[in-house]
Design brief:
mainly beta; Immunoglobulin-like; Jelly Rolls; six-stranded mixed β-sheet; 42% strand; PA14/GLEYA
């Protein structure tokens, strides 16, 4: 601690009137009345100044002109007004006032019977010195109200303590708090978040440089205006900031004693991702640290822009319920030829689902003149988009299909049996689809003679959708 001791020794300057006696560390005191002793400040106690991971301890000493004939006390108070005045009038340069809460000192110095000196200790929070590295941090203690007839000369009662932080610390000594490394943190589909049934939780790490200390708190602020500014400037593109109701964020975290990091949780529910499927926007947050009860927030790495990519939603496999209305249905009468040879359809309409059989179909298919479709010798084509509700291996069925069948997904025929046979169990196909993606879908039906039916069904066993079922209207869209 030799360097620290030296630094604090030369950093102690005592106010004597208007600095008329600058050699003293504590101002010279007028001799008290003959009944009392003369009290003199000796400044810090050489060799006893210490600095640890949290505090700098500055012992100081007063001496008497003779042995105390009785025990007594000398009062101590902070004298911030003097320091503020010196800084404002230029008496102290490159200096800041030590915050009152950052220095602890005894209210009194106890002088025991039969001694000619006494000591006190001022304890300064190291974090304040780190925060103001490169400046002088100053506080003043005022001696007052000595007991048992002892007196302090008027106007000469202040100990001025000037700590030159650059002599005590270097940049690498600072206990900086950094937030996820600062800069921009982009979250894409991968291992950097936790997936749950309700949504996704993104852990953001606050790190503490250098050796950890006792427990402390730090707050997290969500700066909405910053995102608006970045979007306006073009620094961020294709992004939005979510409404407060659409996410949760830890706004206060606690570092436990001995901890070098703490975790902030940013949680976004799956329905918020689902509502963004069409817009396909990134979610952006401008987060910063504030109101730390210890240590120093890094000037640049204490804030971070978090950008959540829509690909994160690929880890969501809760069923998406769409708002579809069905498929475009085109019916061709008196022909069984493939319904894609350029002929005009007999009737065009929207069918909510493909699940037809019995007397109601195709009798209810009529053209604009009110004429019904022929019961035999006709063809049908349904087209549009299918919104995959989950991720997995889809099994599509045209096993209840009288007569011939075809099924296309994104232009590829996965079932192709356009014959005069019906209800064949092998008319099924498996294809991997992604949740939330709309796929082009087209189904063909051929009716020869006799009975007729058409049921387009599916299941996704890998996602828990088991048992054949008709594709519901909500997942079908009549997109041309």
């Amino acid at each position: 601690m030799k360097k620290i001791i030296y630094t604090l020794l030369i950093g102690l300057t005592i106010i004597v009137g208007a600095y008329s006696c600058k050699e003293s560390q504590i101002e010279d005191l007028k001799l008290p009345d003959p009944a009392g002793k003369s009290i003199t400040g000796e400044g810090i106690v050489v060799g006893n100044v210490t600095m640890d991971n949290q505090f700098v301890k500055v012992p100081f000493k007063i001496s008497l002109s003779g042995m105390a004939e009785e025990a007594f006390q000398v009062g101590l108070t902070l004298n911030n007004d003097t320091v503020t005045q010196l800084i404002n009038n230029g008496g102290l340069t490159n200096a800041v006032l030590m915050p009152s809460a950052a220095v602890e000192y005894p209210n009194v110095i106890n002088v025991t019977y039969g001694t000619d000196n006494a000591e006190g200790i001022a304890i300064v929070r190291r974090s304040v010195l780190e925060r103001y590295l490169g400046k002088k941090v100053v506080f003043a203690l005022k001696l007052s109200a000595p007991g048992k007839g002892n007196k302090i000369a008027s106007g000469k009662s202040t100990i001025l303590v000037i700590i030159n932080t650059s002599d005590l610390l270097k940049q690498s000594d600072i206990h900086y708090l950094t937030f996820q490394g600062g800069g921009t943190y982009t979250v894409v589909q991968g291992p950097n978040y936790q997936v749950g049934p309700a949504g996704v939780t993104i852990p953001l790490i606050i790190s503490l440089d250098n050796a950890p200390t006792t427990a402390f708190n730090v707050k997290i602020k969500d700066n909405v205006d910053t995102i608006a500014t970045l979007l306006s400037a073009g620094t961020l593109t294709n992004a939005i900031h979510l409404a407060a109701k659409d996410f949760t964020l830890d706004t206060l975290v606690r570092f436990n004693t001995g901890a070098s990091s703490a975790t902030v949780r940013l949680s976004i529910p799956w329905p918020v991702f689902d509502a963004n499927i069409v817009a396909n926007k990134k979610f952006a947050f401008a987060l910063s640290l504030s109101d730390n009860t210890n240590h120093v927030i890094h000037p640049t790495k204490g804030k971070v822009i978090v950008v959540v990519d829509p690909s994160v939603n690929l880890d969501n496999n809760s069923p998406i319920i769409g708002n579809g209305t069905g498929l475009i249905a085109k019916y061709y009468t008196n022909t069984q030829l493939a319904p894609d040879d350029g002929r005009e359809p007999f009737a065009t309409r929207i069918d909510g689902t493909i699940e037809f059989s019995g007397d109601g179909w195709p009798d209810n298919v009529k053209n604009t003149a009110g004429v019904s479709l022929s019961r035999d010798n006709f063809a049908s084509k349904w087209s549009g988009e299918f919104l995959a509700p989950v991720r997995g291996d889809y099994i599509f069925y045209q096993t209840r299909w009288d007569d011939g069948s075809r099924l296309y997904i994104n232009g590829k025929a996965i079932i192709d049996d356009y014959t005069t046979q019906w209800d064949k169990p092998e008319r099924k196909a498996t294809i991997r689809l992604e949740r939330g993606i709309k796929y082009r879908i087209e189904a063909h039906h051929r009716e020869n003679v006799g009975g007729q039916q058409a049921y387009l069904e599916y299941e996704v066993p890998s996602a828990g959708i088991t048992g054949k079922r008709a594709i519901p209207r909500t997942q079908l869209f009549p997109t041309p």
